[in-house]
């Protein structure tokens, strides 16, 4: 168990995991998507606004779209590194399909990973899917390890810590790095150093990010002010950029090819029947609000390898 004393800002960042997990649980309960495991990490929660539920649906389905493209190109002989994993259930959802990957590594603050490990260990449905051939998991220095799954406490702001914890990764394997609402909580120099390292360390790599964007208008100012009001430092200049400029920034950090789309474009790229089904789940009065929210979040995909160069929103 992590016993260090966290700063007020770190506590605020850690709390965003609880909020995101509860939002996902609400959307799952309403039928937006299927997740048999989210209930282990968040009990019954209050109903969220329809635009929040629909926004999370677009986020989850957009990320899944690119995960499937990645796996189509390298099969399951690959690895996923989930930065700032929180209580994400992707590992278990993939295990229930034919797309379980060979190595899955999750990193977050030790306070988060310790709690996640505790939940995993006390729930058979979670534990049995990560056990090694002997039916056991190994707890080492507060981290949880098994054959093909590693849950490790790490301060992503400290590159030395990141490098040490990623020793469980195979540098030459096809690698997908996920970073959902993570980089916004890092200083610009720390985020840049992390992204440069990942590009250099994994030559067959895809980076998939979901982050705030275009925060240089009035709506973006409100979003930044809300973050500050919760004790989180205002996003850096990179989050004031639009999707295209954000993709260009990734290229300057060693990612040879990068593309990005705001969530308005991602929503439109989803299959017509899926969007129609979701729109029937709840009445949406504030369509303009949803459009504003979606235009201030972006999904970006970048790669260091020609194998993944054709990954696209409409692929």
Automatic annotation (TrEMBL):
GO biological process, any: regulation of signal transduction
A Pfam family: LCM
Binding site for S-adenosyl-L-methionine: 59, 84, 155-156, 180
EC number of the protein: 2.1.1.233
Catalytic activity entry: [phosphatase 2A protein]-C-terminal L-leucine + S-adenosyl-L-methionine = [phosphatase 2A protein]-C-terminal L-leucine methyl ester + S-adenosyl-L-homocysteine
Family in the record: Belongs to the methyltransferase superfamily. LCMT family.
Protein's recorded name: Leucine carboxyl methyltransferase 1
Organism name: Bombyx mandarina
